[in-house]
Every structure is written in C-alpha cells, then in structure tokens.
Specification:
Blueprint lengths: L5 H24 L3 E6 L3 E14 L3 E5 L4 E6 L6 E2 L4 E5 L2 H36 L5 H33 L2 E3 L4 E6 L6 E2 L4 E7 L4 E7 L11 E6 L2 E13 L9 E8 L12 E14 L1 E3 L4 E4 L2 E8 L2 E12 L3 E6 L6 E3 L11 E4 L4 H4 L11 H9 L3
Parallel strand pairs: 1-22
Antiparallel strand pairs: 1-21, 2-11, 2-15, 3-10, 4-6, 4-9, 5-8, 6-7, 8-10, 11-14, 12-13, 12-15, 13-14, 16-20, 17-18, 18-19, 18-21, 19-20
Helix pairs in contact: 2-3
Length: about 375
C-alpha cells in the first residue's frame, strides 16, 4: 500500500479545495435559465362564438271562424302538415240541420216562383180576352217579382249554410310545422281564438345577438359551424346571411342572421338555442405570440424581450391579426427567434434559454359566448380540435 508523506497529503488536499472552489465559482457565475418561445410559422385562426336561436320566416296562428264544439283535432305538436290539410273539425249536427232547412226553403221558393209565373201567363191570356183588367195583370207581375226575390234569398241562405258547414273544418293555410296545439276535442271555440300555432315552411334561419364590440369582425357570407347542446356530435354548416343596420341600445348588441348550407337537421326545433362559431379571419402561415408576452402595447405596435446569443434584448413589433389569446407579428421577429416569457429578466442580462412549446392555433380559446359559454360551446371547441 502506497503511503503519502505529510507534505504530499497537504498538496492533494489543497488541489481538491481549489477544484471545489472553482466549481462553486463557475456555478455561481452561470447564467440563469429563462423560458422562451421559439418563433415558427403556423396557421392562425380567429373565430367568434356566441349563442343563437332557431327561427322561421313566418309564424301564423290558426283559429275557427265559427263558434262550436271541437269534434276532432287531427295533428299533434311537431307534425309536418301540407297546405289544405284538415287540422281541426267542429261538430256539424246543427249546421247540417240548418243547411237542410235552407235547402227546403229554397225548394219552396222555387215552387212559389213557378206558381207565380204560371199565374202571370194565365193573366196575360185573360187580359187579351178582356177577362182580366190591367190592374190584375200588374198584380200577377208583382207576385212573380216577389217570388224571384224570395228565391234569391233562399239560395243565398243555402250558400251561407254550406259555407258555415265548410268552415267547421280548419285547414292548413300552407305547408308548415305545428309549433303549439291549444285545443282538444270537446272544447267550445270562438272566432278569434288561436287553436294552433304554425311555423310556415321556408328556409330555416338562425338569429343571434352579438356584442357590438365584435361588429368589425363580422361580414356577410362568413362560414360558421353550429352545434346544439343535446346533439354535440352533430355539427352542421351555416353562413352569415345578414347583419342588422342598427344596434340594440339597451343590450349593446347587433342582430346577425345565418342561413344553413345544408338541409336542416331533423332535431332542430323552433326557438332552440345553439352555439355558433364564425370564422372571422385566417392566416395559413403566421408568426404569432401570446398576448400576455407583449410589453408597452399601443395600437398595432408593441415590444417583447428576446434572447440573442444568450443576452436579453428588446424588440419593437408591428402587429397584425388578433385573437383573444394571440397576435400575429408582421415585423420585428423572424422564424427561429427566441421570445422570453418571463418578466424578471432585464435587458442586457445573460440567460440560458429554455425553449417551451406553444402553438397559436391550439392555444387560443374561442371567443366567449354572449350568454356565457355553456356545454355546447365546450363541445364545439373539443369537436373542432381547437
């Protein structure tokens, strides 16, 4: 076994001590680590998400023009109906009896007229033979005129009776869907009382009240994706049809209408609430940053901290498209630049850069719904892979 002399042992101990002090000094002088985002071109999408309701072009209330007892209601709520289809039938016993009475009165009037004309013909012959006077002939003519008037009144009564009988059947004015049924068999109905509420067939529209702050982002023709709470997996497409020319002053909102780009799904119901997500802008390749990294923001300009060769520098930026979480950088940065995320570093400081992942398209949340986004909005976000 090799034995060290006392002097050698002291030399080895001194070397170890020097090495330890050098390591501690190097550790103390090493630049602190700072997280940064590596700028890389990527798609940037801006959308607005808000609630809308299903609406049809027109609604009508259908009622009876007669007072009567309901015998039959042939449709239920939600049913699709055709123009001329019988919806409600009233009892007809009394009206049929009235029709029969009117028909009998018409026949009697016809017989009376026939008799009056025969009497007039005989009177004219007798006048020629000087058996009747002119006054008697005039009386026969007046009898014919009265009989004609009675016949006209009787025929009018028959027409009215048959019209009332036809009115016991309430028919659909057009192709439609039954929204509400407010009548049941046995009820007594009166003119002016709504029995059924119908949505006339036509293009289905969606109507939304959008916060006026987002008005500058909306354009007619923009594409949208729509989803309902109860059918989160069945998205369908729509587009902006119109934007109201005025703002609702009380709500600070503007009405936006959408038209469907496909046949309306079978589950859609009148006044159903939906989540609509409108694509308002897109960049296929953009350098984007999270909004919270910007410093001294003013309009379309801002500043950020970047690391160049391990030293912190400040850069002035010109900004472009904004979303709720990210912003496009038009000038001031290039692909590969490292933008620092921390706020404790200072300009001129040396740092060791630690790159962290971030994607503009996946990192930005959808615009909040005006009513507070609910489950439909979450379902849409998840379904779209946002």
């Amino acid at each position: 076994m090799l034995k060290l002399s006392g002097k050698t042992r002291w030399i080895v101990l001194a070397v170890v001590l020097v090495l330890a002090l050098a390591g501690m000094t190097a550790l103390a002088l090493r630049a602190p680590r700072a997280e940064a985002l590596r700028m890389e071109p990527a798609p940037l999408l801006r959308t607005l998400q808000f609630s809308a309701r299903v609406a049809t072009l027109s609604r009508v209330e259908v009622g009876s023009t007669l007072t009567g007892r309901v015998a039959q209601v042939t449709v239920r709520e939600g049913a699709q109906i055709k123009r001329g289809q019988v919806l409600v039938r009233l009892e007809t016993d009394e009206l049929r009896a009235a029709e029969a009475q009117a028909v009998a009165a018409e026949r009697q009037a016809d017989a009376t007229l026939q008799a009056a004309r025969a009497t007039l013909a005989r009177a004219e012959q007798l006048v020629k033979q000087n058996f009747y006077s002119a006054a008697q002939l005039d009386e026969a003519r007046r009898a014919v005129d009265v009989a004609l008037a009675q016949q006209g009144a009787a025929r009018a009564a028959v027409t009215a009776a048959r019209a009332r009988l036809e009115q016991t059947s309430v028919e659909a004015p057009a192709d439609a869907r039954v929204l509400a049924r407010m009548v049941e068999p046995g009820q007594i109905v009166q003119p002016g009382k709504a029995l059924l509420n119908l949505a006339l067939a036509g293009p289905t529209q969606l109507v939304a009240q959008v916060d006026e702050r987002f008005l500058d982002q909306l354009r007619v023709g923009q594409q949208a994706q729509v989803v309902a709470d109860a059918f989160a997996g069945q998205r369908f497409a729509a587009k902006v049809l119109s934007i109201a020319p005025v703002v609702d002053a009380q709500r600070g909102a503007i009405e936006v209408k959408f038209t469907l780009l496909q046949d309306a799904p079978a589950f859609l119901r009148e006044d159903m609430t939906l989540s609509v997500e409108v694509e308002t802008a897109r960049r296929e390749q953009a350098l984007a940053l999270p909004l919270n990294l910007l410093r001294q923001t003013s309009g379309d300009s801002a500043r950020v901290l970047v690391a160049v060769d391990g030293v912190v520098h400040e850069r002035a930026l010109r900004l472009g498209l904004r979303t709720l979480a990210a912003v496009e950088v038009l000038e001031g940065l290039q692909a590969g630049d490292a933008v620092l995320t921390g706020s404790k570093v200072k300009v001129g400081q040396r740092v060791t850069v630690l790159v962290v992942p971030w994607q503009a398209a996946a990192g930005q949340p959808a615009a909040r719904r005006e009513d507070g986004a609910g489950s439909a909005g979450s379902a849409m976000t998840n379904a779209m892979g946002r």
